[in-house]
Amino acid sequence: MAASKPVEPQSGSGLPRWQLALLVGTPIVLGVGAVYLWNRSRGKEKQGKKNGERKTPEGSASPVQGQHGEAEMISKSPLDRAQSAKNKGNKYFKAGKYDQAIQCYTDAISLCPKEQKGDLSTFYQNRAAAYEQQLKWTEVIQDCSQAVELNPCYIKALFRRAKALEKLGNKKECLEDVTAVCILEVFQNQQSMLLADKVLKQLGKEKAKEKYKNREPLMPSPQFIKSYFSSFTDDIISQPLQKGEKKDEDKDKEGEASEVTGSSGYLKAKQYMEEENYDKIISECTKEIESGGRYTAEALLLRATFYLLIGNATAAQPDLDRVINMDDASVKLRANALIKRGSMYMQQQQPQLSTQDFNMAAEIDLRNADVYHHRGQLKILLDQVEEAVGDFDECIKLRPDSALAQAQKCFALYRQAYTGNNPSQVQKAMDGFEDVIRRFPKCAEGYALYAQALTDQQQFGNADEMYDKCIELEPDNATTYVHKGLLQLQWKQDLEMGLELISKAIEIDNKFSDKTKKKKNIIHFFHRGNLDKAIDMFNKAINLAKSEMEMAHLYSLCDAAYAQTEVAKKYGLKPPTL
């Protein structure tokens, strides 16, 4: 392990660069995790030196002292003697003799005049580097903290402390340190950005797991429900009432309900589905199940489906389990229940269980296009792109008119080409998207996935047009407004427009929930530079998440924004204003 090239000790003069990063280069709402994706291509250009491990101490080892070394030491100033001790420590460090290196750095700290803050901070940081090699994380944090106290913008010390904090499980403090590092380095170092992304995902996953378990169920918008059911082509429960299931319909005065044959709760639930009166479906299915009616299996599956839609996976699973194990249930019902349970496991980030369910569904219903479509989505998440493409191909073979499968196959091919750094295949995938939206102009998902690929390619204007097409087709799809809002932040750093679109998404979801509408204006908070209240609005958006995975992502964004506000406070900076 070689000692690093000598560098000048850092000083507090890094402050203007810090301010510039906050005020110009850092979209606050996107946070570190999203900014990492945005800056990834630019960061690759400057990897070289900046991607190196920060393991070595600062300053080079001095030549071996001759016979006059002792006399020379006596005549040296305290700072010179401290530097000599540090150089000797660097030699021991390079040789892997960390105890001796630590002793030398300790001598350097003792000898160094207290007013020499830059040098003293370097000695503490070097000793922390030696402790790091011994996996003494508490000592690493203590010495790095001393270094940062002396030199608040000391990147090496901040990053080393971040790594040690992560080792001890202090994710919040780790995130604050690595956020500071990312901003000071203007998001050009892959190593620090990857650590930030890792910690954000861990925090988001932990918080979402606890929150989602205890969340209040909320019915999503009618548009979201329609989009969900449109992802199935072999779903019996989502089909309209068949001829003979209805009798003469007689709307009541309020137009909320209609009479259907007999007293079947399931048939009433199906009627409510056609009327988009979704709030009554679970209770009607329960009546069918409790009475042991003719449509018990269908009612169990429909009730489970709506439990999943409102985010109550705990209630959905027993119903799905029961349908899957019912010998008298049709193959189509059992396969659909397996697909939905597999998707539930996918959202809960249990890929092994998810894969088992999709495979079982394929075994019992080999020609069910939905199995391959949804399993393909899982394979994309698992970065098993070739297998995903194979599943989408099988789905398309069974259902050539499946616009969703066509679009998602293009996205899988794009991911494969992009991660493989194959420009010709990337272009081929982009041409594929053009073909899909030409053949299926009413498929909002095609435009949305194409927009994501265009954003990756930094073709922001074209991506914005694709999101406009989505909104034109599905004006009540809150997710599209969120993606378009984030694009404005990433593309133009247009904070006002980005937050206005995200506010619109929250307004759409609130419109269809039983909660009191929230009238607060995020934009107002940012005009005042009040990021804390804006973050509070993002916490409200977390309550509207449709899945644990979506909630984890929102937590990651919120935590990234919060970390930046904490870092700004520590450095005496005001949050950016419009």
From TrEMBL:
Bias (Basic and acidic residues) ranges: 42-57, 243-256
Residue windows of the TPR repeats: 82-115, 369-402, 444-477
Molecular function via GO: mitochondrion targeting sequence binding; protein transmembrane transporter activity
Transmembrane parts of this sequence: 20-39
Membrane topology (UniProt): Single-pass membrane protein
Keyword Acetylation: yes
Keywords attached to this entry: Acetylation, Isopeptide bond, Membrane, Methylation, Mitochondrion, Mitochondrion outer membrane, Phosphoprotein, Repeat, TPR repeat, Transmembrane, Transmembrane helix, Ubl conjugation
PROSITE patterns (alphabetical): TPR
Positions of region (Disordered): 42-81, 240-261
GO-annotated cellular components: mitochondrial outer membrane
Compartmental location: Mitochondrion outer membrane
GO annotation, biological process: protein import into mitochondrial matrix; protein insertion into mitochondrial inner membrane
Domain of life: Eukaryota
Entry-linked PANTHER family: MITOCHONDRIAL IMPORT RECEPTOR SUBUNIT TOM70
UniProt similarity note: Belongs to the Tom70 family.
Record's protein name: Mitochondrial import receptor subunit TOM70
Native source organism of the sequence: Sinocyclocheilus anshuiensis
